Amino acid sequence: MALAVVVGAGAGAGSVVFRWCIKTFTRLLSGHADYSASPGVGNPHVPWLGPYFVLLTPVIGGLLYGPLVHRFAREARGHGVPEVMVAVAQRGGRISPKVAVVKTLASALTIGSGGSVGREGPIVQIGSALGSTLGRVTKATEGRTKLLVACGAAGGIAATFNAPLAGVFFAMELILGTFSAEAFGATVLASVTASIIGRAAFGDAAFLSLPDFHVDNPAQYGLFALLGLAATAVGVGFTRFLYLIEDACDWLWRGPEWLRPAVGGLALGLVLLALPQMYGVGYPVLEKATQGGYAVGFLLVLLVGKMVATSLTIGIGGSGGVFAPSLFIGAMLGSAYGIGVHHLLPGTAGAVGAYALVGMGAVFAGAARAPITAVVILFELTGEYSIILPLMLAIVLATATSRLLSRDTIYTLKLRRRGIDLEGAAPGARIGRQHVGTVMEPLPSPLAAITPLADAADLLSLSGHGALPVVDETGRYVGVVTAQSVAEALAEQPDAAPATVGQLAEPPAPVTPDQPIGQALHTLLSAAGSGVPVLDSERGKPVGWLSHQSALRAVHATT
Q: Helix H segments across 472-536?
């Protein structure tokens, strides 16, 4: 708990420094606090260039951060969150302390020179690097180090966006991938500490200033549901387009990597010249869209423009997050949708700004598949509670539909393209490459579903396994019964306890002979017993048994 507070304080201080760097570099390179608030005007530092100065700022920024990233911390390139996810999943939470410094400078230079990316990815990586470093300095266990990494991520999000709850759920849902009382307590402490520092530096104002929204007609819920489905397609499309542009940049560039951001900055400068609203994060443009300040046609132009500008910024080697661009794209989609339905159904549609807000959360949920984070962060960033029900509806629909359209999220796809599977073993690990079929044990004798609990307890105690498969009267596999579940049932009141094992049997997640052991370990470790059945890939019939001992044989097989 004490270490969580220290990490939170470090992340809070890091967010203050990071935002100061962004503001400073933006003023130096554009002459404005936020150039997207006054797009198309000249730079007062070089007034003779007029609006054409945007052709040069990405080049200058690339010349500064390109060599910095290439020389000191190449993992600081890109959006940052995937690197933290793989560090927690496969590297014991180890992140180089250099990342905190390099990421701060590189991302601030990227955004300040016009890169159309967000600041959530960088601050997550910065805070996580601080947590990892503290874990190593204090010689914390691997589990505690991972938790400190999550505390750093939570603190960074909380301080940067003035969203303490969102920081907690972001860390648990995306970084740790699990919920526990210990993780919740530690991340809350880090988030609160960072938020106090952030609010002392930035104030306690909401991220967006919006009028009150109300759902006056139940038919609006149907309109919000349709927006959630449309946002799914846009979120998944943004993910695919992002990596398509990155592939194109990889294919076109043949020079040294340190020079790539500067040369690619020329292309980004052309985009900024055509659409200066894409300069930097673009929060003023987002807020204006939620207030109905743009026509439908221009909103769609801004939507496509943000996809292009963000993808190009990441593709040329820039450093920045994709959360803010997702919100931007969602706001443009929601505003355009809201204006459209307002013209079609003027008496039913309601306020346009409500659709913009819902679109923001739904596009992020469709891209990242983090529904709890999306709901909480939109509520905290706007302070708008009256729209919470349609927001939840659209986000859940977007998340569920996204799973049907894509296997990966905007974060995990980057890792899978590198050959990294968060559910599998780390590259080069001694266990994980073999298939389950090579090490599985013979299937223990199954229990009939009609076996009384008392008899099942005797058989389980003699079997040497903490669980046994269960079959019905036709021999069909119905699940697994564990010694724990039988013992708990026998301890209940006689009239409340099940009579046979068939009523207790539950099928675990399927494990097949051709599945890598690294993936099967997740199912094995979450099983209540000491093993799980291995099912035939075609018929779903048990053909073997995978236990902890048989999984460890994979290590012996490689030695």
A: 483-490, 517-526
Q: Is 356 exposed, middle or buried (0-12, 13-18, 19+ CB in 10 A)?
A: buried
pTM, to two decimals: 0.83
Q: What is the rounded average pLDDT for all residues in the chain?
A: 86
The half-sphere exposure of 456 on its side-chain side, counting CA atoms within 13 A, is 32
CA–CA distance, 301 with 335 (Å, rounded to integer): 12
Question: CA-CA distance, 438 to 12, in Å (whole number)?
Answer: 50
Q: How would residue 418 be classed by pLDDT, with cut points 50, 70 and 90?
A: confident
Distance separating the N- and C-terminal Cα atoms of the chain: 40
User: HSE-up of 65 (CA within 13 Å, CB side)?
Assistant: 36
Residue type at 157?
Answer: I
| Rounded Cα distance, 17 and 56, in Å | 26
The residue whose two tokens read 């990227």 is: 110
Q: In sequence order, which ranges of 39-137 are alpha helices (DSSP H)?
A: 57-72, 81-90, 98-112, 120-137
By DSSP bridging, strand 467-471 and strand 477-482 are antiparallel
Residue 103, CA distances (Å) to 127, 258, 460 in order? 10, 15, 55
Structure tokens at 379: 């509520």
The residues with which 452 forms a beta bridge, in sequence order, are 500
